[in-house]
Amino acid sequence: MKKLLLWACLLCSYTFVNAQLNVTLKANMPFPGKVLSNIGSYAANGKEYALVGTETGLSIVDVTVPTAPVNKFDVVGPTSDWREVKTWGSYAYVTTEGGNVGLQIVNLSYLPDSIQVKTWKGSGAIANQINTIHALHIDAGYVYLYGTNLANGGPIIASLSDPWNPVYLGQRAGSYVHDGYVRNDTLWACHINAGYFSAIDVSNKANPILLNTQNTPLNFTHNSWLNTEGSALFTTDEKSNTHLTAYDVRNINNITELGRVQSQNPGSNSIVHNTHIRNDYAITSWYKDGVVIHDVSRPDNMILVGWFDTSPQSGDGFAGCWGVDPFLPSGNLVVSDIELGLYVLAPNYIRGCYLEGIVTDSTTSFPINNALVEILSTSASKSTKITGVYKTGLAAAGSYSVRISKPGYITKTFNNVNLVNGVLTTLNVQLATIGPPITVSGNVYNAITNQPVASAPVVITNSGSTYNVSTDAGGNFSIPGFIQGDYDVAVGHWGYVTYCVSQQAITSGSGSVSVALQPGYYDDFAFDFGWTEAGSAATGKWVRGVPIGTTNGNSQANPGVDVTGDCLTQCYITGNGGGGAGTDDVDDGNTVLTSPVFNLTGNADPGVDYYRWFYNGGGGFGSTPNDTLTVTLHNGITSAVIERVVATTTGNSSWVFKNHRVLDYLTPTANMTITFEAADWTGSGHIVEAGVDAWKVIDIGLGLPQVTDNKLQLQAFPNPFNGDVTVHYSIKSALQNDAQIVVINILGKEVESRPIRLTQGSVVLGAQLPQGIYMVRLKNGSQLNTIKVVKAN
Question: What's the CA gap between 261 and 243, in Å, rounded?
Fold first, then answer.
């Protein structure tokens, strides 16, 4: 249902499971009737405490047992949405904009038995003059107060030599300072309204001196923190769709930006708040995206390595995670969520896998600017700088394919690039320029009859260019002004198996694009073959597109990708609006997806295969999800349900492969259709998402599917054949030792085989075979692809 309803139910029943990576939930402690602000921590005598800012004061919560937090004391303060807390020794210092209280000081020495509280409103030249304070920082026995009612909001400095009785030392009046960080007599002050941070020499507390200023990306500088070495400063701009930004500050007179990163939801308009650095990890509160952890040990290549989303909300706005404190000895994080209370989290800190290099022109050796470097099958991508340098990476180690592309250059893809946590992998690349535009011609024909296939859509695409054409009555097509390079090629037609090949070189010397389509029924929705939608649902109707993932807690609601290994990246999904889990799901009715008509009278024992997706969750307290995905076969006379999926069905929130023998349900005819119905039953109030991909008809009588892995390509000529048949093959992956082509007869018996030693080539088969129907199977490790051949006599 709609997100507003989901949010209301969550607040009422408080049942919420959180999205996460490398961070584990230990506990969540609500504060009924209160909203939270910032948070700190304190540890002594083997005990750990969260110092939680609330709208009515400070709560001291024992989190020594992280799964069972206990609120020990409440320190009452002025009512305010803003409260900050820092510690020095055994004392906590609390600020607020609530008015007429100054700085609250809490003596924590007597925990867990008792506490002492007093206020300090200034001494000496500003005695009893401090009423409000926005934020503070403490370093080396000095407290720095920001955004007070004095000094135009500039920093006020006091000594904590006597922690119970601060002594005023000086101030710097001028531009309002919202927050700041101090180390080694340098104050890094955040001037939120002016849009920059400043470096201020505070070695003389009575006379701070401005050293330099630096504007931040969105000119709304909220907080700052130094890395362990002190060479890099990290800042946050408290605006929609902003970044955590790193600067080289080794030379204060020449501050330079090193890089920017976003949360786990880049481009979602979420707002960053406060960052802290521990052991060269940036632990950041990111409002509606929760706690976000970046490995910043290489500040010019910051890698997202963990997160925990505390809130069901998403996007723009000031809600969710206000603050996070990462400094407890246990390593646990204490987190304040404005609406949902205190979280205790256990992070698993891992280093990123760093991929860096330089991209140059293979002829001139000049650097190439704005070349796109993509780690395929992930969201990690970066464009090169004017120097040709790129720096990217990810959290999960493994073997990846890396693609480098730019319009005007031939795309390169490197397979089996090994990325390791904490290790820099260097990949320097030279790209060759593409020759002048050419005219590409091609033809599409029936692989069995050699007759042309008219009106077949053809897509030729890479990261720089996409060409969409259709064949004419003679099965021909032509593309003038074609940019030479490596392309993914897809050709399809209803009643044929979609042809799909990646990284095919198309240049002036490669000739025309000739494609033989195998007859059969297969649809991975790379093309629109005429499936139709009908139904009563208000939202979440079936649509064809690249799926935009949504999550409900740690459950994937709408898929984020289509089925791996099929052609291109599209599928059919119920609604695809992105946003929250309930933004565009099936609501208040049903949506029915119906295939075009297909003919099964020529199949001895037909079956249908498909991948389906289903998620059913949410709802209020005690409300059990009760919605359905129903798959039905129709032969023009009768109908039969072949699968009904419910909330408890195995494999939900993932792509699940299913296959069904048609004769087990009804008689095959020439007027077959299949329908997929996703239904949100009236009054259920649940989230309903469904998907369909890689649908096909197989011949069970031959024991093998006619289509399996598109990384393997097979074509047979002529087909049908008389004496022998030439089988052309292409393997678009690493060649395995067991690679072979085998021929299987209608009884499932292997009757001929050939080992494969090259990734592409041809073999001649069938000379000794009797008349009949056979399957030719290409095997490469776990990859399989199969086509049907017919020997006429």
Answer: 5
What's the CA gap between 615 and 647, in Å, rounded?
7
**Stretch (H or E) spanning 253:** none
Length of the chain: 793
Map residue 125 onto helix, strand or coil. helix
Residue 40's closest CA among 32, 48, 30? 48
In terms of C-beta density within 10 A (0-12 exposed, 13-18 middle, 19 or more buried), how is residue 440 classed?
buried
Report yes or no: 73 and 59 within 8 Å, Cβ to Cβ: yes
626 neighbors 617 (Cβ within 8 angstroms): no
CA distance 234 to 274: 10
C-alpha distances out from residue 11 to 24, 30, 313, 598, Å = 22, 10, 12, 49
What does the alpha-carbon distance between residue 504 and residue 125 come to, in Å, rounded to a whole number?
Answer: 77
User: What is the maximal distance between C-alpha atoms in the chain?
Assistant: 110
Q: How far apart are CA 396 and CA 413, in angstroms?
A: 20
265: left (phi over 0), alpha (psi -120 to 50) or beta: beta
The Cβ of residue 271 has, within 10 Å, a number of other Cβ atoms equal to: 26
Per the DSSP assignment, residues forming a β-bridge with 392 are 355
pLDDT digits (tens, 9 = 90+) for 345-392: 999 999 999 999 999 999 999 999 999 999 998 889 999 999 999 999
Return d(Cα 55, Cα 78) in angstroms, integer: 8
- Give the separation between CA 410 and CA 363, rounded to whole angstroms: 13
Task: Give the gyration radius of the chain's Cα atoms.
Answer: 32
Instruction: Please tell me whether the overall predicted TM-score, pTM, comes out greater than 0.85 for this model.
Output: no
Helix (H) or strand (E) holding 235: strand 232-237
Mean pLDDT by 10 residues, the chain (793 residues): 34 47 96 96 97 97 98 96 97 94 97 97 97 97 97 97 98 95 97 96 97 96 96 96 96 96 90 97 96 98 96 89 98 97 97 98 95 92 96 95 89 92 97 89 90 96 88 96 87 92 81 86 95 95 93 84 86 90 89 97 87 86 82 97 95 91 94 97 80 88 48 78 84 85 77 85 84 83 82 72
Interatomic CA distance for residues 95 and 133, integer angstroms? 5
Q: CA–CA separation, 377 vs 368, rounded Å?
A: 24
- The Cα–Cα gap between 593 and 541 comes to 9
Rounded Cα–Cα distance for residues 751 and 791 (Å)? 14
Give yes or no for a cis peptide into 718 (omega within 30° of 0): yes
User: Among residues 171, 212, 174, which one has the least CA distance to residue 193?
Assistant: 174
Task: State the residue for tokens 């004419």.
Answer: 472
Q: Which residues contact 56 (CB under 8 A, 6 or more apart)?
A: 34, 74, 76, 77, 79
* β pairing state of 542-545 and 23-29: unpaired
Specify whether the CB–CB gap between 420 and 392 falls below 8 A: no
452-477 b/e (C-beta count within 10 Å ≥ 16 → b): bbeebbbbbebbbeebeeebeeebeb
Q: From the CB of residue 764, how many other CB atoms can be counted at a distance below 10 Å?
A: 11
The SS3 assignment for 566 reads coil
Two structure tokens written together for 601: 């009278």
| Torsion angle, alpha carbons of 8, 11, 15, 17, to 10 | 80
Residue 620 one-letter amino acid: G
The CA-atom distances, in angstroms, between 770 and each of 391, 410, 751 are 60, 47, 11
